[in-house]
Design goal:
10 helices; ADH-like_C; alpha/beta; Quinone Oxidoreductase, Chain A, domain 1; six-stranded parallel sheet; oxidoreductase; ADH-like_N; Rossmann fold; 31% helix; Quin_OxRdtase/zeta-crystal_CS; seven-stranded mixed sheet; 324 residues
């Protein structure tokens, strides 16, 4: 089969379409013919050599796909060859086929094409699992950065559906307008003093922050936290080492936690996938959440897809189309 392989750690140019060994489904697994694969910022980190796959995971890049079931491993029930599906992966998505534990494969969200669906499951799993962890509730204030990206735009809509007041940041007027169009009550440019604007909009502080920036915003987030506020770090685009004032954190009875989806064991991922189907698919079906805009590239142009995502010009989700 054909797959995208990184020849070495480096820029987008290290990615190329290559012939690799065919796959087969083992016990408890499904073999999936891939229709499309979502492109995530974690993929860029893996290409750069900063985010190696977990033990026993495919060394190929790619954390989510859509497609059709090609074969069932021993003991798998509830699926038939040819069934459409989406899958949450630990790796391997940039390929014509993937092998996935059956619990991480679910029916596509209703009303979406398989290409549209390819960019939903990893984003939904990330947001739902972390907002469940933070216990975001109605009437609380929620802040997310990168509100016009895949995770940010989904988080805006999901938090709004939970009844939260939603604040977001983005980098251009077009992206700020998009954040507002999908449900952000307030959207601020991160090129300005966004922290002061958040403080003005949320006088009593922010209850939950979904933070992809890490160290760069750590002090600002701590200062913005409400009493019993929760900071959930899911990325380190702004570095991995920062300063935390424990006295201020104690005074606010604040919680700081960091989570990662990719290395979790299959049983945990299966539970998260079930939660996504339970919570998110109905919201997509009734229009409460709308899929983000997509920019698509053929699988062979994965390097261009990575360059586009890295440019900062992208709105919504980038998807590689494997089969038209």
């Amino acid at each position: 089969m054909k797959a995208i392989v990184a020849r070495e750690a480096g820029g987008p140019e290290v990615l190329g379409l290559t012939e690799v060994d065919d796959l087969s489904a083992g016990p408890g697994e499904l073999l999936v013919d891939v229709t499309a694969a979502g492109v995530n910022r974690a993929d860029l980190l893996q290409r750069q050599g900063h985010y190696p796959p977990p033990p026993a995971a495919s060394p190929l890049i790619g954390l989510e796909v859509s497609g059709h079931v090609a074969a069932l491993g021993e003991g798998v029930e509830g699926w038939a060859v040819g069934d459409p599906c989406v899958a949450l992966l630990a790796g391997g998505g940039y390929a014509e086929q993937v092998v996935v534990p059956s619990g991480q494969v679910v029916a596509p969200p209703p009303g979406l094409s398989l290409v549209e669906a390819a960019g939903v499951v990893e984003v939904a799993a990330t947001v739902v699992s972390n907002l469940d962890l933070a216990h975001l509730g109605a009437g609380e204030v929620f802040l997310v950065h990168g509100g016009a990206g895949g995770i940010g735009s989904f988080a805006i809509q999901y938090a709004r559906a939970l009844g939260a007041t939603v604040l977001a940041t983005a980098g251009s007027e077009d992206k700020l307008a998009y954040c507002r169009s999908v449900g952000a009550h307030h959207a601020f440019s991160y090129r300005d003093d966004w922290a002061a604007q958040v403080r003005s909009a949320a006088a009593d502080g922010v209850d939950v922050v979904l933070d992809s920036m890490g160290a760069k915003y750590l002090e600002a987030h701590q200062q913005l936290m409400a009493t019993e506020g929760r900071l959930v770090v899911i990325g380190m685009q702004g570095g991995s080492r920062g300063t935390l004032d424990l006295g201020a954190l104690l005074a606010r009875r604040g919680l700081v936690t960091a989570t990662s989806l990719r290395p979790r064991p299959p049983a945990e991922k299966a539970a998260i996938c079930r939660r996504v189907v339970e919570r998110v698919w109905p919201l997509l079906a009734d229009g409460t959440i709308t899929p983000t805009p997509q920019t698509t590239f053929p699988l062979a142009e994965a390097a261009s897809a990575h360059a586009h995502l890295e440019s900062g010009d992208n709105l919504g989700k980038v998807v590689l189309v494997v089969r038209g």
